[in-house]
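ok posting inputs for the iron/sulfur cluster job
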Amino acid sequence: MKESRYNISVIYNGEHLMFNSRTIATAALDRPALDILDTVRQGNEVKETDLVKEMKRVGFLVDDATDELQQLEMNYNLGKYEKSGLGLVIAPTMACNFACPYCFEGTQKGIMSKELQKKIISMASNFAKNGQNINITWFGGEPLLAKKTIYSMSEQLIEICLKENVDYEAGMVTNGYLLDEETVQKLREYKVTFIQITLDGLPKTHNQKRKLINNSGEPTFDRIVENILLVKSQGICTSIRINVDKETEGELEQLLELMMEKKLGENLYLGHVEANTDCSKECSENCLSAEEFARTYVNYEKLLFSKKMQTDYPAPTRINCGADYLYSFVIDAGGDMYKCLNDIGIKKNSIGNIEDLEDFSQLTQNPNRNYTKYMTWSPFDFKKCRECNILPICMGGCQYNGREAGEPICESWKYEIEEYIKLKCDAFG
Ligand code: SF4
Ligand code: SF4
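and the output
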């Protein structure tokens, strides 16, 4: 028997807390448990008592024959090459009704052509016929500028999935401005069960940043929040991303209180505006570093805790995001395909154009290097990740950022994991 390489110990209020990042088990260890740990740390055998069995069950101890790192790597690769479904992020238009300073999108006009729509549907139906589930995220530009396209494609995709008896799931990333009662009902009808909307701080800051493209000067915050309430009232799961930078980090408490008054406090989550991804050069000076964001994040969690609200806690992750999956593609309005959301609209990063394909599987038969670089990137190739005690909950982070930086960029947990463990301890009394 040996100790798990993913144990993290913290002394807090005189207690020996133990967290395991592979199982996310957290416990205060008593003297007998600490003695067992001491024994195995010295390389000595322990008897298989009930306590030892329990410590093994929660992952604090593992068999000598277990190589946790190899198990993780195997699981990571199985996840990457999982073929049970097709995940498509579809931008039916790259146009946008907003002109946000950090956004590179929205300059292209036009809606996806009928031919391209047909092609996507026919290629998705090949997957459905093969028993593979279909998961769609409507994206943009602003997807609601192409409502009719979304409705028409959804109708056909749902029909195919029903016929082939496979699951259909859909979500949407929208700025929320164009939502209204009729649209929300239609989205429900077309099985959009999840909507993500972004706010940029308190009303004043948000209205300065998230301006309409028509330069009308009309504020957008109140209307977006009203629309979020509408979406929520219709039972669609809503997540409100709060863009955090140097300007908005000081507004989080007030913003949380404002949203709590509207019963939306539980729907907020913090998004890191990053200099090398979401940001134009002009706004990069306003971005928080990974460490700064981690601190802001943990302080926000403490704030939630002080308000008796649900706090976040790390969860084991098989792979980091959709871009890592073999059959997960981002498709822009002109049919160019990508692996990562950050690449959308950047032609040189495309993995191919849908017009040149008969089937998505063709992409994997002769993948171009933009595709292979996503599929072959692995946190297990980096010493710092192989040796990292939070690898199971980070998995090397966002590979786009990692590649840009030349090495994986650590998730917030890396900097503040001990604070989270203490918070968890407080939450459970
Ligand atoms: S690789 Fe990074 S930026 Fe790209 S979709 Fe994944 S998490 Fe987002
Ligand atoms: S990116 Fe950082 S936190 Fe994530 S696994 Fe690698 S070393 Fe650990």
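notes: The mean pLDDT is 93. Residues 379, 384-385, 388, 390-391, 394, 396-397, 408, 410-411, 414 surround iron/sulfur cluster (ligand 2) (CB under 6 Å).
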